[in-house]
Amino acid sequence: MSEKRMIGEYEILASVNVGRHEIILCENPNAPADERYLCGYLETNDLFKSCTGTMVGKDYLDLAELFGQRVQEEAAKFKEELAKLDVPATVLSVEDCYSDRYDKDINGKLIVIDPKSLKPEYRRADRQLYLVTGGFGAYANARGNAVFCKNLHTGEAARFERYDVLGEAKPDRLPDWAKEKLAAHEKKKGKEHER
Fold first, then answer.
1. Closest C-alpha among 128, 122, 14 to residue 78
2. For the whole model, what pTM was predicted?
């Protein structure tokens, strides 16, 4: 039997991840009648969970309908975001990288994140390619797992676990946009080294 997922006193009955949001539908049988059901956006990090955009009510169907509307809205927003993407939506696999070995240091390397470690809507190269910037998990034979990195496409900082790393990217297997971004990064790094 799986453990109940809770947010405060509410049990999460249904949840859907879409893009950056997890939409939840919850129940608390001990709450006042007009607050028995809850719909909101669940935000989690390593320290806490919080719920934003919360709506409560006594009618399950009303809140279930709101839940469905929010899922549709987030899916539509994400489709718009994808339509604006300036690179092809390809997925990198084990053939596109040198397999990860824990006895190898990956600091400063371009890595490929295993698509299975990503939400379904993010399983594509622009969300798989990262430049490693540090973390205990980036070192050879490390005891830690944290790998800090920067997204090659967006430049956004991220954290993954070492077991999320599929391997180091093979330069000849990179999409054209990634080769250009990597070349620009190497050129910038070279100029900084000259100073």
1. 122
2. 0.82
